[in-house]
Design goal:
heterodimer; A: mainly alpha; ABC transporter involved in vitamin B12 uptake, BtuC; globular; B: mainly alpha; two-stranded antiparallel ribbon
Chain lengths: ~375, ~350
């Protein structure tokens, strides 16, 4: 293969095509699935799915999940896992509400508190996992237990934030000009998004850039792909892993504040199963738990697929709660099997052979 | 003597045993009578043993059985099954739905148990097939059943939480009349002995460890790696069925939302606290069983200290972190160096 490349490199017209990477392939599958699924929903059920507000509500309701997913994807690329996200989110919401209402806290103070809690979790988990070499599952499981237990110690009953500045901030909506729908009385209503969505999408963009174009981002892929090779290449494996968990903790803190901005309440039941949803989003988005493969845009689309499936299930009349989890399970099963089959065929080098004749690229250099 | 001490302090059981010892000492200091065993007469008129130590072992029965299955899965597949709680809910629902509406006799209970065993084995094989044939990470493969399992249990019983009551079921979940030890403990001991015999007289344990340590060389040596992995999931399925049935008999009803909730996390913790690597390979079942007792002893201790049930998790997390830090390889190495220094010093002084 290498000799071929050298041989044909100088010949004009014989442009060598880089084979598509696993990350890009899985990302394309995810995005295509989402577009097909949403288009199908629009055609069959119309109504709500044609309303831009319903599309934006996927973001409004799940902005915190996007933020948590960002941290989780970073960690999963290094072949680790972080399941403390949901617990930390609940802890942040409760602590901030108690701080704002009972201790006369300021808005800036509560944001600092949220970031502080997230960083503290990230710091401790990062040190334990990266430097003491303890299994990430156990450490973050303990983190989740600790956070969920602490919520009830901070306050045993659910609370709602009543501080004025916070309530004012919570009620801010950003209207998108030119996009909207006609209400029942025929008036044009602008589609709205919450400030939390802007935060979440900004983080997604930053992480996408970091993963693609910075040394830290490439190091994450290198470590996940093969830790020993990364070590031999002179990458500081421990420090990179530590930063990944630190960032994951920080994002859980931010996610908690975004959640608080959305609901305005502190409750131990907040963000239950958020970690499982985040893991499912990352998997559907093409991130492999074995590490080294994954992208943040894929995770975003994975989350959207998961939520679209839920609303399709509800719209199609299966209102009983158990249908949602059963379809989520089936969806996961489908994507996991798809990834497994695609990657196995690719590994055997038979992917090109498996394609039908008309899909094969003409004029491609064969081995 | 010295050599024996060295061997023991290097073994993986030292940290879990030390943790259990600390818990016992802590409880004795807090309350001298904590571990006293009384003989009382319960509501059914049986003379039975009672006391904290009995309730710890009794309460840990399901966890210990699941931890054994989880150890085998961990060893063979280098991953964990996070769907055991959901699968136990399904198994329990099947058990109850067979018993419901019929006259409960011993053959029918056995039939119901067989049915729920078969269902649990089918779901275990589903997980196992995904892991063994499609080479999917166990935690991801079992995520499917984890998210759908309790809903399937809900669907089996039509959303209701039916109760079953019969003296025979009380005998399984509580006490056999005239016998002072709780039946779950006896079932657990029987199961542990059975697994121990299987491991002693078959190659199961050896093959499982070989597949976990180096799958490629195991295959080259003629071991059917896919079958070994599938078998570990099937055994876990049987464990799930047994613990589901014990729990249903203990409570007398099936609630798909709350039966054995979070047990998967506790089972994985029991494996890890027992000193087994979650990365597969060598395993020690005694460690996992001790791990299960540690978790239950910790829970009972916290309840005895009047910690609210929702806050127990936070204290549990602190203890777990302490245990995993002590048993982490880096800290262990440092501790072994320290031990060698301490053991050498006195001899030097004597020479001088």
């Amino acid at each position: 293969m290498i000799s071929n490349r050298g041989l044909f490199a100088g010949i004009p017209g014989k442009k060598h095509r880089e084979p598509i990477s696993n990350t890009a392939l899985l990302l394309r599958i995810t995005i295509c699935t989402f577009i097909c699924m949403y288009a199908f929903a629009m055609l069959v059920w119309g109504g709500g799915f044609l309303n831009p507000q319903q599309f934006l509500d996927i973001f409004n309701n799940n902005a915190f999940l996007i933020v948590i997913c960002c941290g989780l994807t970073l960690v999963m690329i290094t072949a680790g896992i972080d399941i403390s996200g949901g617990g930390v989110t609940a802890l942040v919401t409760m602590t901030c509400v108690v701080y704002l209402d009972d201790h006369g806290g300021s808005l800036i103070g509560s944001i600092a508190l949220a970031l502080g809690i997230g960083l503290a979790f990230g710091l401790i988990q990062g040190v334990l996992i990266a430097y003491l070499d303890i299994q990430p599952f156990i450490v973050t499981l303990a983190g989740m237990f600790f956070a969920k237990g602490m919520v009830t110690i901070v306050s045993a009953v659910p609370r709602t934030a009543a501080q004025e500045t916070f309530v004012a901030l919570k009620q801010i909506f950003i209207e998108i000009p030119g996009v909207g729908y006609y209400g029942k009385t025929g008036n044009f209503i602008h589609a709205k998004i919450e400030p939390g969505v802007i935060v979440a999408l900004a983080i997604v963009l930053i992480i996408a850039v970091v993963l693609k174009w910075t040394r830290f981002g490439r190091n994450l892929y290198a470590i996940g792909g093969h830790t020993h090779s990364a070590l031999m290449l002179g990458i500081n494996v421990n420090r990179t892993k530590f930063y990944a968990y630190l960032l994951s903790g920080l994002f859980s803190g931010i996610g908690g504040y975004v959640y608080l901005l959305h609901t305005g309440a502190g409750d131990a039941a907040n963000a239950t199963q958020a970690e499982i949803q985040a893991i499912a989003s990352a998997i559907i988005g093409g991130t492999l738990l074995t590490g080294g493969v994954g992208s943040i845009i894929g995770t975003l689309f994975g989350m959207m697929i998961l939520k679209t499936i839920t609303s399709i299930v509800v719209t199609s009349g299966l209102r009983e709660p158990y249908w949602q989890s059963i379809t989520t399970g089936l969806m996961l099963c489908f994507f996991i099997l798809l990834q497994s089959v695609v990657l196995t065929i690719r590994e055997k080098g038979g992917f090109k052979q498996a394609l039908p004749e008309w899909m094969k690229l003409k004029g491609k250099i064969s081995i | 003597m010295d050599k024996g001490l060295k061997k023991f302090s290097g073994s993986q059981l030292v940290v879990p045993l030390f943790a259990l010892f600390l818990l016992i000492v802590f409880n004795l200091i807090r309350d001298v009578g904590f571990f006293s065993i009384n003989i009382i007469t319960n509501n059914d008129g049986n003379t039975v043993l009672s006391g904290n130590i009995i309730s710890i072992i009794n309460g840990a029965s399901e966890l210990a059985i699941l931890a054994i299955g989880m150890t085998l899965v961990t060893s063979a597949t280098k991953g964990q099954d996070i769907s055991v709680g959901a699968a136990a809910a399904i198994a329990g629902s099947v058990f109850v739905s067979v018993l419901r509406g019929t006259q409960i006799t011993l053959p029918i209970i056995l039939g119901a148990f067989l049915a729920c065993c078969i269902v649990a084995i089918i779901f275990g094989s589903f997980n196992g097939t995904l892991v063994a044939a499609f080479k999917i990470q166990p935690m991801i493969a079992t995520l499917i059943l984890f998210s759908a399992g309790r809903s399937i249990a809900y669907w089996i019983n039509g959303g209701a939480t039916p109760t079953v009551s019969s003296p025979l079921l009380v005998a399984i979940g509580g006490f056999i009349p005239g016998f002072p030890i709780p039946t779950p403990i006896i079932i657990m001991i029987m199961f542990v002995v059975l697994i121990w015999l299987v491991l002693k007289f078959t190659n199961l344990g050896l093959f499982t460890q070989v597949v976990g340590i180096n799958e490629k060389s195991a295959r080259l040596n003629g071991i059917n790696t896919a079958w070994t992995k599938l078998l570990s999931f099937i055994i876990l399925g049987v464990c799930v069925a047994i613990s589901g049935v014990i729990n249903v008999c203990r409570i007398g009803l099936i609630n798909h939302e709350t039966i054995l909730i979070d047990i998967e996390m506790d089972a994985i913790l029991a494996v890890a606290i027992g000193g087994n690597s979650l990365g597969g390979g060598k395993f020690n079942l005694t460690g996992s069983v001790i791990g299960a007792f540690i978790i239950q002893a910790l829970t009972v201790t916290l309840y005895a200290m009047k910690v609210p049930s929702t806050a127990v998790k936070a204290y549990k997390a602190i203890v777990i972190i302490a245990i995993v830090i002590i048993s982490s390889p880096i800290v262990k190495e440092y501790a072994l160096q320290l031990r060698d220094k301490l053991l050498k010093k006195p001899t030097k002084i004597m020479e001088n």
